[in-house]
Design a protein that fits this description.
Elements lengths: L4 E6 L8 E6 H89 L5 H43 L17 E4 L2 E4 L6 E4 L2 E4 L4 E4 L4 E9 L3 E7 L4 E6 L11 E2 L4 E5 L9 E8 L2 E3 L13
Antiparallel strand pairs: 1-2, 3-6, 4-5, 6-13, 7-12, 8-9, 8-11, 9-10, 10-13, 13-14
Helix pairs in contact: 1-2
Length: 302
């Protein structure tokens, strides 16, 4: 077989000489192998180029996300520095008022040793002392409130500095067991018949069912709301927030860090609902998204 020859005849379109080439089967097979190897190398070069380009695009996206987070952290640091300046100012005012209060008390003791003719001055000093005591008490309350805010700020900074997987900050799974009774989208109002948007879903459940956080985050709000009764708002960073309405027995406070699967409240019968149910909403950069996209429908069933 390898001793045979193959003849190639080239016939030009126009008048000209007919060319003929004779190649052995060995040479022909060798040329075929060379062509296949060159095609394979070329394909590998193209694949490697596309892979490197994809990695560069992902690197640019990650760098952009990193720069955004760095700006937010710098902003928090600036707020923290301004808060410390305010604390120092409040402390200085408090110390001055404390000194004035002590001075007034000393003047009262001296007034007691004086004659009855100085009782009017003693009464005025007592009144001034009472006013200063009220002011000092108010300053103490302001100082305690500022310390609470500083503690919440420190917790928030710890959350943003964590190096855990970012997937834990994306809502995933159902917040409780139940059945969806109202979908996301535009609905018709049962009272006036008008169309109105619904930015979340309603999930009916059993009374006293536990409510769980669907992702790691920081509690931005936990308390009464004029639309959703008792409500919890959790910030998961990167512009992602989750909202839980018509809840009861809230077990978390504003500024607290919560983890996915942590119980944050219970669902009871409320005056705003016809039965135990949860309003669940997810916002990304202020735009409501359909929460059912983040929930496996089977996960809602008991």
């Amino acid at each position: 077989m390898f001793g045979k020859f193959v003849t190639f005849i080239f016939i030009p379109k126009r008048t000209g000489k007919v060319k003929k080439t004779v190649l052995s089967v060995k040479v022909l097979l060798f040329l075929l192998v060379v062509v296949l190897v060159l095609l394979g190398l070329w394909s590998y070069v193209i694949y490697d180029y596309l892979s490197i380009r994809s990695r560069l695009i992902n690197l640019k996206d990650n760098q952009s996300v990193y720069n955004t987070q760095q700006k937010r952290i710098n902003s928090f640091y600036q707020q923290h520095e301004s808060t410390e300046v305010h604390f120092k100012h409040v402390d200085s005012i408090y110390n001055k008022l404390k000194q004035l209060t002590q001075s007034t008390q000393l003047s009262q003791r001296r007034a007691d040793e004086k004659s009855a003719a100085q009782q009017e001055l003693k009464l005025k000093a007592a009144q001034e002392s009472g006013i200063l005591s009220v002011i000092a008490s108010t300053i103490s309350e302001i100082d305690a409130d500022q310390q609470l805010k500083a503690s919440r700020f420190d917790q928030l900074m710890l959350f943003f500095k964590e190096t855990s997987s970012p997937l834990t900050r994306i809502p995933q799974g159902a917040p409780l067991k139940g059945y969806m009774i109202s979908e996301f989208g535009v609905l018709q109002d049962s009272f006036n018949g008008r169309l109105r948007p619904r930015h979340g879903i309603l999930i009916a459940t059993r009374a006293f069912s536990p409510l769980f956080a669907t992702a790691d985050g920081v509690v931005r709000f936990a308390g009464p709301d004029k639309f959703y009764g008792e409500m919890i708002l959790i910030d998961h960073a990167n512009g992602i927030q989750s909202k839980y309405g018509y809840v009861s027995a809230i077990s978390v406070k504003e500024g607290a860090i919560v983890r996915r699967g942590q119980q944050i409240a219970e669902i009871h019968n409320t005056q705003r609902t016809t039965g135990p149910q949860l309003y669940y909403e997810i916002d990304v950069n202020g735009i409501p998204l359909n929460p059912i996209k983040f929930i496996n429908p089977l996960a809602l069933k008991d």
